[in-house]
């Protein structure tokens, strides 16, 4: 959907046309859901998170000022709601273990000391990346998810996260550095 059509639909919604909201959300659902999947690591959680995002969007769209694109605003809500969910889950877990994900071996070797990439399939690698992502500081993880998976520009991410473009760039750089360090033994050729 082009930006002009999007703005017209927002105006219609603000005047009480709820069908305009349905059109907007249908257009953005797949991208919000994809970001929610990356944020939560679970399809079920992603559906719940996406629903939360659209409920908040419905309640708050009247105050949307249009300084950013609607997609950026929705991604910001998605990232922030994802952070809230992680905080709530962390408060419930006494040991800080992410359910359903294996711990990374502390010695950096594979399961039985062999070459770490032997027998490592895409699902295992995805789990290891998710576990490593969970160890990155929250602000950096959220920024990386927004820029990388939400495909939001640094400028739009800065607006969405209420920080400077330089802060966004540093957070993305540092999050990637931390991921490389945590996964270096698993990603060697």
Quick rundown:
The chain is an all-alpha fold and 189 residues long. It contains 8 helices and no strands. The protein has 2 domains: 1-92, Orthogonal Bundle (Rna Polymerase Sigma Factor, Chain: A); 101-189, Orthogonal Bundle (Arc Repressor Mutant, subunit A).
Textual characterization of the structure:
With about 190 residues, the protein is mainly α. The protein folds into 2 domains: about 1-90, Orthogonal Bundle (Rna Polymerase Sigma Factor, Chain: A), CATH 1.10.1740; about 100-189, Arc Repressor Mutant, subunit A (Orthogonal Bundle), CATH 1.10.10.10. It contains 8 helices and no strands. Residues about 95-120 have low confidence and may be disordered.
**Integer-rounded radius of gyration:** 19 Å
How far apart the termini lie comes to 42 Å
Number of strands: 0
Taking the sheet with the most strands, its summary is: none
Structural class: mainly alpha
Key words describing this protein structure:
single chain, Rna Polymerase Sigma Factor, Chain: A, 189 residues, mainly alpha
Secondary structure topology:
Blueprint lengths: L2 H12 L3 H23 L2 H18 L9 H23 L29 H14 L2 H12 L4 H8 L3 H19 L6
Helix pairs in contact: 1-2, 2-3, 2-4, 2-6, 3-4, 4-6, 4-7, 5-8, 6-8, 7-8
């Amino acid at each position: 959907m082009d930006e002009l059509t999007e703005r017209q639909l927002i105006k219609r919604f603000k005047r009480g046309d709820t069908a305009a909201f349905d059109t907007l959300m249908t257009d953005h659902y797949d991208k919000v859901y994809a970001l929610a999947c990356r944020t939560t690591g679970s399809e079920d959680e992603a559906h719940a998170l996406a629903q939360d995002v659209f409920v908040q969007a419905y309640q708050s769209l009247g105050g949307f000022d249009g300084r950013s694109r609607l997609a950026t605003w929705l991604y910001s809500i998605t990232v922030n709601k994802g952070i809230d969910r992680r905080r709530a889950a962390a408060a419930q877990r006494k040991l800080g273990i992410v359910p359903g994900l294996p711990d990374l071996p502390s010695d950096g070797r594979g399961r039985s000391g062999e070459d770490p990439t032997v027998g490592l399939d895409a699902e295992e690698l995805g789990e290891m990346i998710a576990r490593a992502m969970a160890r990155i500081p929250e602000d950096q993880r959220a920024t990386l998810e927004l820029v990388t998976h939400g495909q939001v520009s640094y400028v739009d991410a800065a607006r969405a996260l209420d920080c400077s473009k330089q802060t966004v760039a540093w957070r993305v750089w540092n999050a990637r550095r931390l991921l490389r360090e945590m996964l270096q033994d698993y990603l060697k050729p």
